[in-house]
Amino acid sequence: MGRIDALPHAGVKGYTIKINSCGRQSRWTEAVHLLGEMRRCQSEPDAIAYNATISATEKGAQWQAALQHLAAMQHAKLQPDVITQSAAISACEKCGQWRMALHLFAGVAQNGFEPDVIIYNSVLSACEKGHEWQAALELWAEFQRSSLRPSVVTYDATMRACEKGQQWQAALELVAEMRRAGVAPDVMAYSAAVSACEKAQHWEAALQLLSDMRRDSLEPNVITCSATVSACEKGLQWQVALQLLSEMRRSELRPNVVTYSAAISACEKTLHWQAALQLLAEMPQHVLEPNVITYSATISACQKGQQWQMALQLLLGMRRLELEPNATTYTATISACEMGRQWQITQLLLEEMGLHRQEPDVTTYSAVLGACDAARGLTSSEDCRLFADCGALALRALTVRSAAHPRRVESSTCWGGCCGLRMLGCALALVQLHPARRSSYCDRAAKERSRSGMAAERRTLVQRNALLCSTGGR
Question: Following CA atoms 453, 454, 460, 465 in sequence, which dihedral angle do they give, to the nearest 10 degrees?
């Protein structure tokens, strides 16, 4: 700050030179301080000084400071020009303030100026960063009606907006438009178009774009290839995904964790659990550490392949790597154990989820219920203890299973022993959701009431629920 204090009588020109210097060095706070110093020294800033200050705040991504100085400039009866407005819009773009960028853009024409390509690019980029793809496409349509010639940046920003809006057809049209206009699509444009196709689950279009890149002598990067692998995963093209992964390795393009996770997920969705395990085993060889998403996809592949032991081993492997399993990981493992009729393990895993603050969902509870049902596991109050806390989710799980397998739920031994009052309450509530099966469930509840040694208050509540059941739940 000593250098700033040494310019008390430098005049407007001297201050402006210093402000420009601060802007080039990304020292926006000093630039703002210098503008204030000008006023204190009774050197009234002119439009050039304000432009320099606003440009400095833009380089520092300080959109609020940029707007404050724009307002101060107008208050001083100074007319903002295209440079002023372009810098303010760019500051908003860098901070994702798309609404303000559009507002300022509207003010450009109102002030009698024609927006240039740089302004259009900034506003398009602001809309893209704000996931406002519709606003970006409307702006692109307006741009096309002007006499301006789009740059690669213009196309790239519009393409990224299409990607985020899953507008794959618009993205393909933009690539074609670039060629017609004589603007060669770059890697960024192709990557955005491929990603748009991936998000919209159009794997064939993504593959075609990858082929077009090579035809244009452009080398796809990891992002482009990973997006294409992910598109194949969504299109259930596991063999194509593995082929792309192999091509990446041969071209010395190093696949990352995202690439492998997408390839593993492709194998998982098409029931190729062995291929998924092979890919997971390859990752350390390429100095890649699997993440939670990678493990979850591999465990899910083992679950679909009815490999419950392998699913458990993978869960243990996560712990050795100090990776915290999420709800998806636990649910896939529990579902694998359900298929293996490992009802005790499913209960242990359900309890572990609670210890790790992972929230079970309907699928989780349904899998535990299914494992216990298949193995006839719920035979004592201790076995039923975990279900006492299922609450509404347990009811929903029972509802799902009842709709799919009504007879299995009716005959399930989870009604055996002391099933717990809440579970019976869930059953009676379930009857109300399925009135046609009310009689069967009420009979079951009556038998359990007579067999169990419930306390008096529990027996009273069951009798009340049975009465509700007999009267049609009214």
Answer: -100
Encoded tokens for 227: 């997006």
Rg of the chain over all Cα atoms, to the nearest angstrom: 32
CB 399 within 8 A of CB 440: no
- Domain count of the fold of the chain: 2
Q: How far is CA 201 from CA 104, 233, 234, 294, in A?
A: 36, 9, 6, 20
pTM, whole model, 2 decimals?
A: 0.69
Each residue's pLDDT tens digit, 115-126: 899 999 999 999
The confidence score (pLDDT) of residue 195 equals 93
Q: Is residue 269 part of a domain?
A: no
Q: How many angstroms separate the CA atoms of 154 and 363, rounded?
A: 46
Which of 217-226, 247-256, 272-281, 317-326 has maximum average pLDDT?
Answer: 272-281
CA neighbor of 127 nearest in space, from 79, 167, 67: 167
CB 346 within 8 A of CB 370: no
Provide CB contacts within 8 A for 10, sequence distance 6+.
18, 43
For residue range 33-89, list pLDDT tens digits in order.
887 777 777 678 888 888 888 888 888 888 888 888 888 888 888 888 888 888 999
Instruction: Give the model's pLDDT for residue 31.
Output: 80
**243 and 277 in contact (C-beta within 8 Å)?**
no
- Of 209, 279, 205, give the one whose Cα is nearest residue 235: 205
Query: Where is the domain boundary, 55, 80, 105?
Result: 80
CB of 228 closer than 8 Å to CB of 244: yes
**Helix crossing, 456-470 with 421-433: angle to 10°?**
10
Token pair 């702006």 is found at: 139
- Which two three-digit tokens encode residue 394? 């347990």
Q: For residue 224, which of 258, 251, 190 has the smallest C-alpha distance?
A: 190
Question: In this structure, is residue 354 part of a structural domain?
Answer: no
In a domain, 16, yes or no: yes
pLDDT for position 403:
55
- Within a domain: 7: yes
- Which domain-ending residue is among 45, 60, 80? 80
Predicted confidence at residue 28, as pLDDT, reads: 81
Containing structural domain, residue 462:
378-474
Residue carrying structure tokens 């379930």: 430
- pLDDT band per the 50, 70, 90 thresholds, residue 3: very low
